[in-house]
Amino acid sequence: MFDIVVSNPPYINISKIKSKNSLKDKFKVNGNVDVGTLFYCIAYDYLDDNGVVCYVTSNKWLGSLSGAWVRKFIKEHFRIVRIVNTYRVRLFEAHMEVCIVLAIKEGGAKNYDIEVRMIKPRMGYRWSAIRQKGYYIPSSQLTDKIWHLEPPEVMSIYYTIQKIGTPISKWSLRITTGIRLREYASAITTSPQEGTEWVGIIKGRDIQKYFHKQPSMWLPRSVMPAISNSDNKYRIIFSKMNAKTGFVLAEPYIYGDETTYILELVDFNEEVLYYLLGILNSSFFDWCFRKFYAGGGIENEVKLYALKKFPIPIMEVDRCLADSIIEAVNLIYNGDLADHSNDIDNLVLGLYGLSADYLYIY
């Protein structure tokens, strides 16, 4: 038995290991978890009571679905002293955000404070930033569902939007992965010919806020019967990987490739699409989504399960503001993006009952 366990466990997903099934059985976990999270169980087995563990791992488990088991395990078996987390920062060369957890083996610890140190972009030398003084959060803020590491004044924003909004998953819409082009490789062309009905394909990297580049590939509509019934409807397309979230209104017969997600309304309504576009392209959404819902892991990844949790007020919450957002989006598609997108930022804040100060203080 040991007094201290310190490690930087492997950054490997369990799905990449041949003995994955035996590991899942041994540690009683489901899903494709990061192998590094299993080391918390190993630390518990090898530590004396009141022994100390300090691990550097991917921070994906702080908010991911597969990380629920380790969040629960740590809360039940350790008292957390300090968490150092990265936000859109890489401490190492790997394209992965990480966290450092310092904890004491003490089962059933409740109602205590945890020191948090958050490393953000533009903080200077990153290892010096780790040693800077942090802030404290109550242990009750870390739930089995997700670990939010923000200070109380920032968490007040989270609680506000949770109260006012309705999760995207409860809206009458479908979100699916874009077209997997390898299934239609032989039919792809970059120069559509007349006399054939075509479906245009855009890539995730060609998507920005509200607008996208012209399709670089085309497929005959006849080879895609599974989606042909909705070809003549407008839809929202967004990239799976994007430093800044960008959502575009795609015209009929335009889809995204497998690096995108496609959002379609169950009952088509252009006003609802414009309303959603305004909110999803707002600076407030980008800030809130990455801070409270994105969950860490691969830098700039937009996780679908996290997006579906994001709460958006239904239009009837404030019909006047909703109509103003819709009007501003219409103007963007017919005028100046910069001026009207700034208007939308303020309208979205008002929709959640917040002032413009919230967008820039933190």
Description:
The chain has 362 residues and is of the alpha+beta class. It has 2 domains: 2-149, Rossmann fold, CATH 3.40.50.150; 167-361, Alpha-Beta Complex (Adenine-n6-DNA-methyltransferase TaqI, Chain A, domain 2), CATH 3.90.220.10. It has 11 helices and 15 strands. It has a 6-stranded mixed beta sheet with strand order 1-2-4-3-5-6. Helix 9 runs antiparallel to helix 10 (337-351). The two termini are 43 Å apart. The model has no long low-confidence stretch (mean pLDDT 86).
CATH architecture of the largest domain: Alpha-Beta Complex
Total domain units: 2
CATH class group of the largest domain? Alpha Beta
Number of helices in the DSSP assignment:
11
Largest sheet properties: 6 strands, mixed
Overall mean pLDDT: 86
Q: How would the global form be characterised?
A: globular
Query: Into which percentage range does the β-strand content fall?
Result: 15-25%
Tell me the layout of helices and strands.
Elements: E1 2-7, H1 20-27, H2 35-46, E2 47-58, H3 68-77, E3 78-86, E4 98-105, E5 113-119, H4 126-130, E6 135-138, H5 152-164, E7 166-167, E8 173-177, E9 198-202, E10 217-220, E11 235-239, E12 247-250, E13 254-256, E14 260-265, H6 270-280, H7 283-293, H8 304-309, E15 311-312, H9 319-332, H10 337-351, H11 358-361
Parallel strand pairs: 1-2, 3-5, 9-13
Antiparallel strand pairs: 2-4, 3-4, 5-6, 7-15, 8-14, 9-10, 11-12, 11-14
Helix pairs in contact: 2-3, 6-9, 9-10
